[in-house]
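explain this chain.
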Amino acid sequence: MDDVLIEKIKNGNDHAFRVLVEKYRNHIFYTVYGVLRNEKDAEDAAQEVFLKIYTSLPQYKKQGFKTWITRIAVNHAIDIKRKQVRRQENQQVEYDETGHAPPSESVELLVINKEKRELLRKRIKELPENYRSVVEDFYIKEKTYQEIAVKEEVQPKTVEVRLYRARQWMKKHWKEDDFS
């Protein structure tokens, strides 16, 4: 079915592309939403993904269409997320350079949060190696299970299990007072 549509699209049939978009619209939206966690951003990204799919169709080699478009969607969403993080970091650098705190936070709160983050970074180094990167990616870098799974080349369920086991390890080895 998909291969027939793809051939029609390659031959200039716009209706076939609309059918393809309709068929995979929800799948692409929920894929990018899983990374971006924002409905508006996911809607915009989904449209951009379909544009990428359309322009990339000549390179498609019948290797599993749904997998292929999912990979395009995930990579595009991760690129958007990285740009958002960079933008936030740049804004934070501007605050730091000007010596002003963001209006919503007091200087004391910023200092306390920075100290907690530093303590957490030090403590993360105590974690067993197989938990360290997922904990750092999830809690410090605020990546999604999907993003971590792509980076670690594992299934999102594996990331979930590692985080669960890491939390169990932390409960057993760390006192709650260490972080309050």
User: Anything to note?
Assistant: The first helix runs from residue 2 to 10. The chain has a mean pLDDT of 83. The CA atoms of residues 76 and 109 lie 35 Å apart.
